[in-house]
Design brief:
This protein has 291 residues and is α/β, with parallel strands linked by helices. It has helices spanning 45-51, 78-91, 104-115, 133-140, 144-159, 169-179, 185-195, 222-231, 249-252, 273-276, 278-290, and strands spanning 7-13, 16-22, 30-34, 56-60, 97-102, 120-126, 196-198, 204-206, 236-241, 261-266. It has one domain: 3-Layer(aba) Sandwich (Rossmann fold). It contains eleven helices and ten strands. It has an eight-stranded mixed sheet, with helices on both faces. The chain has a two-stranded antiparallel sheet with strand order 7-8. It starts with 6 loop residues before the first strand and ends with a helix.
Length: 291
């Protein structure tokens, strides 16, 4: 049960009006929560509710997600996301800030922290290191020309799509349940209510932009990303679910690129560790904050 609700606010980044929620307690140390792909800021409500007494908790909606604007040109590159994060930290004067981020948000937050190590006091990334070394090796085997052509083809296909419409919110709820079997009924209903909006004809659609599914064909080199990880000077917690598809960085070798990283695996948890094992996650988070 969530005991309170946050207030909604906006900020501007690259001409887009982006959204975040604020849980109050502005004299406390700032804590920024960043969600993953196809998610939204209110997915952090259970975490935020438990932390708001000791922290000034804020949670962002990434561009193209939740109640943030969609990018007119469909730009959902990592560079664009990192700039947006830099903007909210700069505009709200949050540095040094503590960050807890999931999946895509974790990838963005770790890059930002490597770029501005003095701006981040502590960082927690839940399955946020991106594709595994195995997946990257498989991708590199495909010619660059082929990857670019696929990106153009996929972008063209997305441009012809309209957001999927569900006849009722209950239909959208069923899709949410199927996406994560670990969710309780309360979690599934809460997440669906904040993830969907009603169309003019009475149907429901997810708030995220379909264009965010199509990632750019190129990114910074893996060696450069590892250099950013190595530049992170603050304590770092990397969380993984042992039932997730994601590759554990302690086993695949990526953890060695961090100076001060601790890797924690959570039993009976999938990709959404903070939903699947909330109590265990909060306990681990509390220990990390107290260290």
């Amino acid at each position: 049960m969530i005991s309170a609700s946050p207030t909604s606010h906006g900020y501007i980044s690259q001409r887009l009006k982006l959204h975040y929620v604020d849980w109050g307690n502005p004299t406390a140390p700032p804590l920024l929560l960043i969600h993953g792909g196809r998610d939204h800021c209110r997915s952090w409500d259970w975490v935020a509710d438990r932390l708001r007494a000791d922290w000034h908790v804020m949670a962002t909606d990434l561009r193209g997600h939740g109640d943030s604007a969609w990018s007119p040109d469909g730009d959902y590159s990592m560079a664009a996301y990192v700039y947006d994060l830099a903007q909210i930290v700069h505009q709200l004067e949050l540095a040094p800030v503590t960050i807890v981020a999931h999946s895509l948000g974790g990838n963005v937050a770790l890059r930002y922290t490597g770029l501005y190590p003095d701006n981040v006091r502590r960082i927690v990334a839940i399955e946020g290191l991106g594709p595994s070394p195995k997946m990257l090796a498989e991708r590199r085997q495909r010619p660059l020309q082929e990857r670019w052509q696929e990106w153009i083809r996929d972008r063209r296909a997305v441009s012809a799509r309209t957001p999927r419409r569900y006849a009722t919110l209950a239909d959208a709820l069923e899709r949410m349940r199927n996406e994560n079997k670990y969710l309780t009924e309360e979690q599934a209903q809460h997440l669906t209510r904040h993830a969907a909006s009603r169309n003019e004809d009475g149907t429901w659609s997810w708030k995220f932009d379909n264009y965010m599914h199509v990632f750019p064909p190129v990114d910074i080199a893996q060696e450069e990303l590892q250099e950013l990880w190595g530049a992170i000077s603050c304590p770092t917690l990397l969380c993984y679910g042992d039932k997730s598809w994601a590759s554990n960085p302690e086993k695949d070798g990526r953890a060695r690129h961090f100076r001060h990283a601790k890797v924690v695996s959570f039993p009976d948890a999938g990709h959404w560790v903070h939903h699947d094992q909330l109590d265990a996650f909060m306990e681990e988070l509390g220990k990390f904050f107290r260290e």
